[in-house]
Amino acid sequence: MDVQALQEKIEKKSRELGFTGFGIAEAELSADNAHLQDWLAKGQHGQMDYMARHGDMRAIPSLLQPGTVSVISVRMDYGNDDTQAWETLNNPRQAYIARYALGRDYHKTLRQRLKKLAQYIESEIGAFSYRVLVDSAPSLERALARNAGLGWIGKHTCLIDKDNGSWFFLGEIYTDLPLTGTAISTQGHCGTCTRCIDICPTQAIIAPNRLDARRCISYLTIEHQGSIPEEFRSAIGNRIFGCDDCQLICPWNKFAKRHVEPDFMVRHRLDALGLIEAFAWSEAEFLHYTEGSAIRRTGYLNWLRNVAIALGNAEPDTETLAALHNRAEHESPMVREHVQWALHKLQARISD
Ligand code: B12
Ligand code: SF4
User: Fold this and answer.
1) Whose CA is nearest to atom 1 of ligand 2?
2) Atom of ligand 2 nearest to the CA of 157
3) Is the CB of residue 272 less than 8 Å from the CB of residue 94?
4) 101, 242 in Cβ contact below 8 A?
5) Residue 50: C-alpha distances to residues 70, 198, 222 (Å)
6) Element of type H or E holding 325
7) Is 307 exposed, middle or buried (0-12, 13-18, 19+ CB in 10 A)?
8) pLDDT of 31-79, one tens digit each?
9) How far apart are CA 279 and CA 320, in angstroms?
10) How far is residue 23's CA from residue 288's CA, in Å, rounded to a whole number?
11) Which of 47, 231, 281, 290 is deepest in the core (most CB within 10 A)?
């Protein structure tokens, strides 16, 4: 088998399938594993027990897929209009949903395309051992992508590409094929810039490359179950699902291209959703508007919880107060508690 020729063919096919970056990583991640274990030992993963569940499997690909010697790592862009994102963030009547969740759930799109890529390889060389991953099994996707030459891990911990910024998803194929590593340089280019650290509303980036997930709005609004600690509620602002501030401020995203992937086009005008409308959705409406979307992960009650916080951070006008009063007797104690917090906050502002 001419490995180089095969690799070129796989890369060409990956572009046809909509992937915007391609590389081969060696499966050695011991230094990253040490950082992961330290992060877990300090409890910085919060309630994300799945991050601790698999021992070393997350950092040693062959423990997950026996025989793995190389990893095909790919990137798919989802970048959009940053100006519109800032406008939404600065409008307290609007709901801010992280850019990555405005279109189709990326797990579905990347998985399907990666399967097609694997089938293509099979058509070229016959049966081979592989496993397709998109955040679907324990893996250190950013470290693998960095080792494949797709970019460097920025101070905010996202992977950044010099020519395309950080608005992209990652996916992998673990394989027993002895492909040749494509890493060019894993050196970072953040320099002395600390804009992501400075802008983070909840000071979640506690040091360069160190994210305390328990403080991160993305974690709090998506992964965290139950009551959101009060100390973070005001800082959450109008971010009702995920957060993009550390990427929006990153100078490297000036070079990000807008995506052209139909799957990631904004659905149901979720980029222009009003908070009052979002709060009025019934569960059936929530399920309808989030069908096939990553937003489903948070569930209806957490959605109401998050929107209640954002309403508490909005202006204390009649409509906002009425929307909150409408949910004040909600059957969920968690929703009621967040509604009460929001009403108290708005009342206090009226009395000031
Ligand atoms: C858990 C998780 C989260 C958690 C925790 C985030 C985090 N930083 O760990 C939460 C819910 C907060 C989150 C948020 C987001 N996430 Co997320 N998340 C993941 C997930 C499942 C695991 C990440 C992980 O391994 N964390 C463990 C910690 C320890 O990793 P780390 O801090 O990055 O440290 C690593 C390196 O930096 C390195 N390292 C750090 N310091 C040092 C020092 C030395 C000396 C060395 C050698 C190495 C080293 O070692 C670590 C292991 O590689 C991945 C998918 C996957 N399976 O990989 C997606 C993933 C990272 N998330 C993604 C996205 C898009 C997001 C959000 C942008 C979504 C949003 N808009 O709300 C935010 C970004 C927030 C942020 N600043 O990171 C993308 C990132 C794409 C990219 N360009 O980087 C991924 C890859 C999913 C995907 N398949 O595309 N996420
Ligand atoms: S996603 Fe938001 S809260 Fe999380 S580290 Fe980035 S700026 Fe901070």
Assistant:
1) 243
2) 5
3) yes
4) yes
5) 24, 29, 14
6) helix 318-326
7) buried
8) 999 999 999 999 999 999 999 999 999 999 999 999 999 999 999 999 9
9) 10
10) 37
11) 290
Q: Collect the ranges in the chain with pLDDT lower than 70.
A: 183-186
pLDDT computed for residue 185 by the predictor: 67
Q: Is 102 helix (H, G, I), strand (E, B) or coil?
A: coil
d(CA 46, CA 221): 13
How far, in Å, from the CA of 320 to the mean position of ligand 1?
35
Protein residue with its CA nearest to atom 75 in ligand 1:
218
Give pTM, 2 decimals. Answer: 0.97
Task: Output the six-digit token pair for 103.
Answer: 């279109």
Interatomic CA distance for residues 347 and 36, integer angstroms = 44
Is 243 within 8 Å of 224 (Cβ atoms)? no
What does the pLDDT look like over 229-239, one tens digit per residue? Answer: 999 999 999 99
Distance (Å, whole) CA 77 – CA 130? 24
Q: Rounded CA gap, 73 and 148, in Å? A: 7
Pocket test for ligand 1, best of 29, 139, 142 (most atoms within 8 A of CB): 142
Q: What does the alpha-carbon distance between residue 352 and residue 348 come to, in Å, rounded to a whole number?
A: 6
For the chain, how are helix, strand and coil distributed in percent, rounded to 5? Answer: 50, 10, 40
CA angle 339, 342, 345 (to 5 degrees): 150
For the Cβ of 143 lying below 6 angstroms from any atom of ligand 1, the answer is: yes
Question: What are the extents of the domains in the chain?
Answer: 1-80+103-209+256-265, 210-255+266-351
